[in-house]
Amino acid sequence: MSTRTNNQIRRQFISRATALVGATALGLPAARAQKSGAPEKEVLKFGFIKLTDCAPLVVAYEKHYFEDEGLNVTLEAQANWKVLLDRVIDGQLDGAHMLAGQPLGATIGFGTKADVVTAFSMDLNGNGITVSNAVWAEMKPLLPMEGGKVKHPIKADALKKVVDKWKSQGKPFKMGMVFPVSTHNYELRYWLAAGGLNPGYYTQSDISGTKSADVLLSVTPPPQMPATMEAGTINGYCVGEPWNQQAVIKGIGVPVVTDLEIWKNNPEKVFGVTRTWADKNPNTHVAVVKALIRACMWLDASMANRLEAVQMLAKPNYVGADAAVIGNSMTGTFEYEKGDKRPLPDFNVFFRYFATYPFYSDAIWYLTQMRRWGQITESKPDSWYIETAKKVYLPEIYMKAAKALIAEGKAKEGDFPAKTDGFKGPQDGFIDGVVYDGRKPNDYLGKFKIGLKAADKV
After folding, report:
1. Do the beta carbons of residue 236 and residue 133 sit within 8 Å?
2. DSSP bridge pairs for 199
3. For 74, how many CA atoms within 13 A lie in the half-sphere containing its CB?
4. How far apart (Å, rounded) are the C-alpha atoms in residues 452 and 86?
5. Where does 127-264 sit in CATH, by number?
6. CB–CB of 368/104 below 8 Å?
7. Dmax (CA) of the chain
8. pLDDT at 458 over 50
9. Is the confidence at residue 34, as pLDDT, over 60?
10. Beta-carbon count within 10 A of 455 CB
């Protein structure tokens, strides 16, 4: 038996013994002490995809935060997002690092139908859009310059001229994203549409999402993005790190824009479990969220912690990319064209700006994009969007964990949003200047030139 396992057992034994002694001293039944806040399930297996934003799970494991909560956790990399979701649904995994759209997509029945919930947002930002060297060579002369460098943020207007040229030559323009309900799909579509390019619609008879498309989008697992582009199968992609920076290091492509520039401080991944699991294991759920909150606090506490996290993530059982590649985006900078490294301190945010709180308005944004591109085939009233968000996002679980950490002296009240109703209020910071209000989803959908409006059908 490993030293790690022995330590876990020892901690759990001491925790139980302390509870029993305390119960005896207070004259309480031992069973009641065991029941009060104790995890219903202690041995857990969580899945993740090899991306830098699996960091909260990795840190909670490596810094023993899960053990502090009496949990014996195993982390297991998954082949792709579909396999990960299926394994959570069928119980092979207790929970997982998920795309923010996955619990929502499953709940409304786009693709796999299942009740999946989340009580924890894992990070903000962290994605980029990369094009091949050949595409960049055509785009760059069309872009404004500033101080001898390309002016950022880069909008898709320049790419539209390239795509239009390819169309006239009978050449399709293809880009990769990681999953139909991924942030990457919606961010790539948002950026393209803001530049006048139609990324295509999903229909009941064609779930490829390419109807009327100027740019053909298809699914590629994150670690395979650079090689797929290098092979010429796709001309660009939207993915999380370190796979944009990998293209720069390998000299095969140029990241042109980050999601921070498409939507400032956008929510990215969540920790997802099934509704059945959450109902059966409420104390375990709170314990897991406590450990993850501590991990995110640690990640944003100092640059020294970030550098330590980079070394953790570089291990082959986690992300498995070179530390230099991971560090390119995890330590406050981002490299666009090779040698053009710029400060981007908010590219990876794990705890600042209340990053870990599951806001209803974040969920509703994803639902609006599902409707905009036809994944939700019919018009829905505003109330439907709000009710669906409240069905999937569980801030009450999050706040139980937060209050427990405050009581234990491991966090402060100011670390968490005070008296929030789950909505951030009207948000700007989008690349096209459109303002988003989660309380008015149909009004929001009506603001776009490209995309389905409230009563539209494809």
Report:
1. no
2. none
3. 10
4. 30
5. 3.40.190.10
6. no
7. 83
8. yes
9. no
10. 8
Check pLDDT > 50 for residue 14.
no
Rounded (10°) angle between helices 303-313 and 323-330: 140
Q: Which residues pair with 72 in a beta bridge?
A: 43
The span from the CA of 361 to the CA of 122, in Å, is 16
Pick the CATH number of 37-125+267-358+394-415 from 2.40.30.20, 2.70.98.40, 3.90.1150.10, 3.40.190.10: 3.40.190.10
Q: Using a cut of 0.90, tell me whether the model's pTM lies above it.
A: yes
Q: Hey, which bits of 61-200 come out as E strands?
A: 72-77, 95-99, 116-121, 127-132, 145-146, 149-150, 174-177
Q: Are strands 43-48 and 72-77 parallel, antiparallel or unpaired?
A: parallel
Select from 212, 369, 189, 405 the least CA-distant residue to 290: 405
CA-based torsion, 110, 114, 119, 121: positive or negative: negative
**Residue in the structure block whose two tokens are 């490993």:** 2
The mean predicted confidence, pLDDT, of the chain is 92
Q: In 409-418, which positions are buried (b, 16+ CB within 10 angstroms) versus exposed (e)?
A: eebeeebbbe
Q: How confident is the model at residue 19 (pLDDT cuts 50, 70, 90)?
A: very low
In 3D space, the residue among 191, 82, 77, 83 whose CA is nearest the CA of residue 131 turns out to be 191
Amino acid letter for position 298: W
In degrees and rounded to multiples of 5, residue 21 shows phi and psi of -65, -45
The dihedrals phi and psi of 394, each to the nearest 5 degrees, come to -120, 75
Using one digit for the tens of pLDDT, what is the confidence trace for 228-277?
Answer: 999 999 999 999 999 999 999 999 999 999 999 999 999 999 999 999 99
Q: What's the average model confidence in pLDDT over 198-206?
A: 94
Average pLDDT over residues 212-217: 98
pLDDT at 411: 98
Q: Where do the domains of the chain lie?
A: 1-36, 37-125+267-358+394-415, 127-264
Digit-coded pLDDT (tens) for 379-436: 999 999 999 999 999 999 999 999 999 999 999 999 999 889 999 999 999 999 999 9
Question: Average pLDDT in the 146-172 region?
Answer: 97
Cα separation of 12 and 259, whole Å?
42
H helix runs in 204-358, sequence order: 225-230, 243-250, 259-262, 275-280, 282-299, 303-313, 323-330
- Looking only at the bridges linking them, the beta strands covering 95-99 and 269-274 are antiparallel
Would you state the pLDDT for residue 146?
95
Contact (Cβ atoms closer than 8 angstroms) between residue 261 and residue 153: yes
127-264 has the same fold as 37-125+267-358+394-415: yes
